[in-house]
């Protein structure tokens, strides 16, 4: 049975055009043995930015090696967002970044990421 990972929210500031790393939670699997398994679904909701920009979301391992990237996601995805099936092993301290294609405009915006994973049957959660 799939389990949920706490929601990741990344604030893209006004004027920002660089990757912003998630801060809460600091990593997907903070401690060894926690959230170990396979990431099965990533749901991304993009805000209605002032300026027409796209957002690229990336997942990295603890060493900064790219594991997955979304490609350009249009703004204002609404409640439905983008539900993307994946199969990515989780081991320890993975994290997301979000990068706007340009200046999001006044106030920036918050990209939210919800994930589901299938726990490793040999890990005690």
Name the features.
0% helix, 4-stranded antiparallel β-sheet, mainly beta, Jelly Rolls, 125 residues, single chain
Account of the 3D structure:
This protein has strands at 3-12, 20-21, 37-45, 55-60, 66-73, 82-90, 95-100, 109-119. By secondary structure, the protein is mainly beta. The protein has one domain (3-119): Jelly Rolls (Sandwich), CATH 2.60.120. The strands form two sheets. The protein has a four-stranded antiparallel beta sheet, with no helix packed on it. Strand 4 and strand 5 form a beta hairpin. The radius of gyration is 14 Å and the shape is globular. The two termini are 13 Å apart. The model has no long low-confidence stretch (mean pLDDT 85).
Short overview:
Helix content is 0%, strand content 49%. With 125 residues, the chain is mainly beta.
List the helices and strands and how they pair.
Elements: E1 3-12, E2 20-21, E3 37-45, E4 55-60, E5 66-73, E6 82-90, E7 95-100, E8 109-119
Antiparallel strand pairs: 1-8, 2-7, 3-6, 3-8, 4-5, 4-7
Topology order in helix (H) and strand (E) letters: EEEEEEEE
- Supply the number of structural domains: 1
Q: What is the helix fraction of residues, given as a range?
A: under 10%
Largest β sheet strand count, sense and barrel closure: 4 strands, antiparallel
Unreliably modeled segments: none
Span between termini: 13 Å
Computed Rg: 14 Å
The helix/strand class is mainly beta
For the secondary structure, the number of strands is 8
How much of the residues is beta strand, in percent?
over 45%
The CATH class turns out to be Mainly Beta
Shape: globular
Number of helices: 0
Spatial strand order of the main sheet: 1-8-3-6
Within the CATH hierarchy, at the fold level, what is the topology?
A: Jelly Rolls
The average pLDDT value, as a whole number, equals: 85
CATH second-level architecture: Sandwich
